[in-house]
Each structure stands twice: as structure tokens, then as C-alpha cells.
Amino acid sequence: MAxxxxxxxxxxxxxxxxxxxxxxxxxAGASPAKADYELKRLEKDPYASALxxxxxRIAKRDWTLGLYGKLAxxxxxxxxxxxxxxxxxxxxxxxxxAANLPVKLTGLVDHWDAxxxxxxxxxxxxxxxxxxxxxERRESEADYELDKGRHRNxxxxxxxxxxxxxxxxxxxNDFYVTAYNxxxxxxxxxxxxxxxxxxxxxxxxxxxxxxxxLGPKGTLTPFHHDLTNNLLVQVKGRxxxxxxxxxxxxxxxxFVHCFSGREPTDWDVEDPALPPLLETTIGPGEAIxxxxxxxxxxxxxxxxxxxxxxxxxxxxxxxxxYPSDSRF
Length: 328
What we know:
CATH topology of the largest domain: Jelly Rolls
Strand order of the largest sheet: 1-2-13-8-15-6
Organism: Sphingomicrobium sediminis
Mean pLDDT: 93
Number of strands: 15
Shape: globular
Largest sheet: 6 strands, mixed
Distance between the termini: 22 Å
Order of helices and strands: HHHHEHEHHEEHEHEEEEEEEEEE
CATH architecture of the largest domain: Sandwich
Domain JmjC: 181-326
Pfam families: Cupin_8
CATH superfamily of the largest domain: Cupin
Low-confidence stretches: none
Strand content: 15-25%
InterPro entries: Cupin_8 (IPR041667), JmjC_dom (IPR003347)
Protein name: Cupin-like domain-containing protein
């Protein structure tokens, strides 16, 4: 059976009462007598007392975070992902950025040449000879995103384009050019930045800001949260974005770093333990603001080309103070 002390410690931190702890031990293989003996020992165990105090502190913190969710639901439009057309920067930063709320944005990049130019043939002609870093063999393991460093490979852009053309409309999550591959791709794909333009809510640095994404229909980015605010801009194809509020971290099964054990299928059944799930779809020329800490799951509904940005015209340093050991 599992380690008794570890089971008890986890139960205490989860706020389990004596009956729940006893059931947990018996289900793990302990005899009822053994379970009763271990629970009796807790009365004089200083470590158990400390864990109980920590559990109460966590419960208080979770209650406080829950207030934000309840209050967000009191907004006139409720807890949703609204759509706003080309907002004034001051309004965007006040209503969404500072409020830690998502928003779908239209009209923000209508002036980009990329919206008309970027397709596979254009990419082939413009940067097809360049060597590009990608993630591949993603379907070979369940934790492909957590272990993404092992899935890196550098190939000519022509090879990626050929694979995308061969797939056509067939879904695949096996290969993807993502922001993680940026250190190589910002140089090799520099010519593509000529087709972009300024974005009113961003602060340009003059150094090819942003991250290039390219993949087939069916690419998935599992539930996670970022350590900065992000702007995801869709150039070609559509992406479905599912989101869960930042304050619902306690219900997102955050097992390591910024990753969640949740899947969209969890919401297929009614469960009061589930946090609210928000959904929207962005298409060419549309963008979505992904606030710091908000959990999001992204699925490509078509062959997809996107750009993402973190260089907002506001403070976006939230990495400072992030726990150095994030094994939960």
C-alpha cells in the first residue's frame, strides 16, 4: 500500500476530517485497526498539528480567491469573454489588463499585410530555405508539452510546409512551430516581420517583437497558465480557446509548474467541483487577451498561423517572485 504517513499528510493538507482520513487509509490497503491506530497517533504528533494549521491557512486563501470569482459574476455581462472592437489603449488597460479579465479583440491588426499574404505558398517563397526549429513527435507521449525540450528539431521550413500540404484537412497534433522555438526562429523567420505592423496596446522594441506559431488543424496546447499577460493574434485559420479564471487555481489540478491535470472533457458532465469554463473562437485578424494566471487550452480548428506578444505598453513582469520549486 502507499506510504501511510504521506497519505495522512496529503489528507490533512486537503482538509479531510478523521472519517475521511480513515476511509482514505482503508481504501489504500490499511486494515481498519491500522487506520485507527495511525489516526490516534495524530493527537500527539506536532507535525500533524502544523499540517492542520497549514490546511486552515490554505482554506482561508482559497476562500479569499473565491471572492473574486463571485464578484466577477456580478458584472453586468457576467463572467464571459466579451468582444471589443479596436479599443482605446487606456480603456483596454483599465477594463481588462488591470482587471485581470480576458477579452476577444477585433480590428486591432486590420492593417497587417500578413492577413492577405500569409499562406503556405507565400511562406515557402519567403522563408522556405530557412532552417526552423519545431516540436515534433508530440503524439508519442502524453506529456509532450511538459517535456517539450525533448521534442525540438531543426528542419528547413520547406519540410514543414510540405508536411502541412500533405495533411490537408486531416487533424494532427504531432508537429508544431511554437513560441518555445523562438530563439532560433526569430532570426530565421525575420523577413516575415515585414508583413506585420504596430499594435496600439503594445510597446514596440524594434527587435521583431512577438512569437510565430504554425501548425496543422488539430494542434493542442493543454491547460496551463502563463507567467506574463499574453496577446494571441490569429493570422490564418481558427483557434478555439477555452479558459478558466486565475482565481480557480485550487480546482485546476495544478500538479507541476504552470500545468493543469484538467482536460476539456472534464466539463462533459455536471460537477459542482469544476470551475467555470469560458470558450471563444478567434479567426483571421482577431486576437484574444490572455491575462496573467488564467488557465487556457488552445485547439487549432484549421491549419493555423498565429503570432503572440508579451510586450504590452504596461508593466508585464510577473515572473519575479514565482516559486522556484513548482512541483506540487
